[in-house]
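Q: Structure tokens for this one, please.
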Amino acid sequence: MSEDRLRRRIVFDGTVPIDVPLTAMDLDSIRRGFSELFDRAAQTVQAAGYDQDDSVVERFFICRAGDTTDVEIAADCLSDAERLATHIVRTLTTAGIVEADARAARIVGLKAVAILETAV
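A: Here is the predicted structure, written as tokens:
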């Protein structure tokens, strides 16, 4: 099925608060937070009458650097704290945040979005 023949509909968009500085990454608490979100997403997908394999769940970090507004960053890697921190700093600096502020950033929330992809 080609990508242009799919309709994407968000059926779950949830967040959980967390306060994790990049300098003292706690991957266990991050994983627990995403696990909670994924459970809620699965329940929502099933309540809408769909199977889990009908949906795609995307995960994001909500990061705060200095006095800037919060920035959502794709949460692709949860296996290595150093690699995760590097990814976040790189993404924040690409978004125009000063590198020193990016290195002092905090993860202040976790977000999961469940998307149904159906043929049109």
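A few notes: The mean pLDDT is 90. Residues 27-47 form the longest helix (21 residues).
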